[in-house]
Amino acid sequence: MPVQFAFQEGLIPAGDEESFFTRLRDWGFDAVEVWGENLDARLERVKTAARNAGLPVCGICPGGRGIRGSLLHESESSRALARKDISTLLHCAAELGGAGLNVVPEFGAEKFMALHPDHSDLTKRKKIFIEELAPLAAEAEKLGVQILLEPLNRYEAFFLLTVDQAAGLCRESGSPAVRILADLFHMNIEDADIPATLSRNIRLIPYLHLADSNRLLPGHGHTDFRAAFDALNRSGFSGALCMECGIPGDPDKTVPAALRHVRALWAEAQY
Question: How many domains does the chain contain in total?
Answer without folding.
Answer: 1
